[in-house]
Structures are given as structure tokens and as C-alpha cells.
Write a structure and sequence with these properties.
Blueprint lengths: L2 E2 L3 H14 L6 H16 L4 E2 L6 H17 L3 H18 L8 H11 L4 H17 L10 E3 L11 E5 L2 E5 L2 H19 L3 H6 L6 E2 L2 E2 L3 E2 L3 E2 L1
Length: about 220
Amino acid sequence: MATELTDVGKHEKARDDVSGALPFPASRQVRRIERVFDAARALCPPLMVGDDEIEPRAAIGPFIGQMKQASDAGLYLVALITALTLPDMLAALSSVNGRATGEKYLTWLQTHLGQSAEDAAQLYGFRCSLLHQGSPYPHGGFHRIAFVEPGSGQLHNLSTQVGEDRVGWLSVPMFVDDMQRGAEDWLSKHGGSDNVRRNLTRFARRRPEGLPPHVVGAAVTA
């Protein structure tokens, strides 16, 4: 059964409260907001939970597409960070409670990328250190991770050592491709599951029509 999240009456009250709090007559900005409320009331029903369904491929497609676009455009940190977060999102989507954990991340890597337990632990440590501290030294005491920018040959899934200094290497374009293949494998195994369809109702995505009745006629991501 669909559950109503909001109604126009609540927004009208919020509009009146805002307008009444202003120490001057309604400005052009306030009048523009009023026109949005009027359009929402006339054209759009309230957003209902349960009516808001999307296909799994359509939901995760923008994350994968923009990850690849960033890599192709030379935005390697953006592409790398997106790739490192993808297992979190997909593992959460296919879980019962819809939440990400380190254990789910590790399992996703081993299941959909075929990584060993040690490699998965190193990549998870790199995900944590890079996303939260901007550090190439993975949590867990592993050696640092580096990448060579395309154009001068690529090093991927190997390490070099000079004296006591050991470095693990990855190619961002190749890593992005690996994650895309892993996502495709995940889709084939979990895309139609009840867990995924339930959790997708809370998944962020682009909405070209807006987010009625809050915003109408302008694309938003929510």
C-alpha cells in the first residue's frame, strides 16, 4: 500500500510561514516559489512510496556511465573514487537491510570480481584510506597504492619493490572496466531480487520531471 509523504496543504502552510516571516513584501523569489506550488497543486499528485519503482539497470547506469566518462575525460580521482564506492552501493542494494558494511564489501569483491580474500582486504583498506583520509596507504597495514596516468603504459594488479619500499599499482581505466564487469555480474545474479527492488525505492537517481510537488519542470537527483 502506498504511503503519502506530503501534501500540498503542508507546503502552502510552509509558504505562508516563510512569507509572513519576511520583513518586506513578497519578493520576486517568493512569487516564483508560489508559482511552483500552484503548478504542483494543479498538475501533480503527492509522491507516494510504493509507486516509485525503477529498473535496477536504469538505477545504477548513471553511476557506471559517469564513472567511465570521468575516466575517459582524465578525471582519474573522480573515476577512482566512484569505482571504489560501487561495491558498497551494490552490496547494500542486494542485502536485507539495505545498508553497507565492510563484510558485505569484501564478499562483493570476492563474488563478483573473483578476488582472493587478501586482495579484497587490501582494496577495502584502500577504499577506506582514500575516501576518508585522502591517503594511498590502505587501512590494515598494506603497502601504498598508486596509478600511472594513461599515455605512458599501464601497470595493473601488480606491485614493485625497491629496497624496503613496495608499491601496488592499478590502472584507473582498467579498474573502472573491472568494476563495470563486476556490476554486470551482480545485475545478472541479483537484479531481479526482492531485496534489490525494495531497496531501490530509497536509491538516489536522476528525475528529469523534477520532484513534485517540491520542484516541477527541472531535472533533479534525489
